[in-house]
Amino acid sequence: MLYFAYGSNLNHEQMQERCKDSQYIKFFFLDDYKLFFCAFSSGYGVANIVKKLGSNVPGCIWEISERDEKALDYYERFPKKYSKDFFKLDGEKVMFYIIKKKFSIQLPIKQYSDLIFQGYKDCNLDREYLRKRIRDHKIEKQ
């Protein structure tokens, strides 16, 4: 199955530890979504994407096995925290996790954002996008 990652699961080392069968395919931009850091139970934000026409979210496509999906379900606390959604890419269904419950905008902790920054580097994504989203969150929180 194909899986779209946009947060800490961009990090290749983390994915290899968590999802032993995973194979990185390519970086990808998901149209009509925007990256946010959201919390509904913890005091810090985790990556989430929200429908936003005209925006796009950088991420990557992984090929994962059923065993990998179960590991991701556990890590993402599916279905209590994240839900699953899908889009089509070249005729193939691609799964991604999304928080659809009510949430607040919260900054990520440094350890978590560092994992994502490394993932942006691993996937050859522009880290300035991530820096800007974190800066925007700081402004929104004031």
Notes on the structure:
Strands 4-5-1-3-2-6 form a 6-stranded mixed beta sheet, with helices on one face. It has a single domain, classed as Hypothetical upf0131 protein ytfp (Roll), CATH 3.10.490. The chain has 142 residues and is α+β, with helices and mostly antiparallel strands. Helix content is 32%, strand content 39%. β2 (23-39) and β3 (46-63) form a beta hairpin. The mean pLDDT is 93. It is globular, with a radius of gyration of 14 Å. It is built from 4 helices and 6 strands.
Any key phrases for this structure?
142 residues; 6-stranded mixed beta sheet; globular; single chain; 4 helices; Hypothetical upf0131 protein ytfp; alpha+beta
Architecture blueprint of SSEs:
Blueprint: E1 2-5, H1 12-18, E2 23-39, E3 46-63, H2 66-75, E4 83-89, E5 92-98, E6 104-105, H3 110-122, H4 127-141
Parallel strand pairs: 1-5
Antiparallel strand pairs: 1-3, 2-3, 2-6, 4-5
Short recap of the structure:
With 142 residues, the chain is of the alpha+beta class. Helices cover 32% and strands 39% of the residues. The longest helix is centred in the C-terminal third of the chain and has 15 residues.
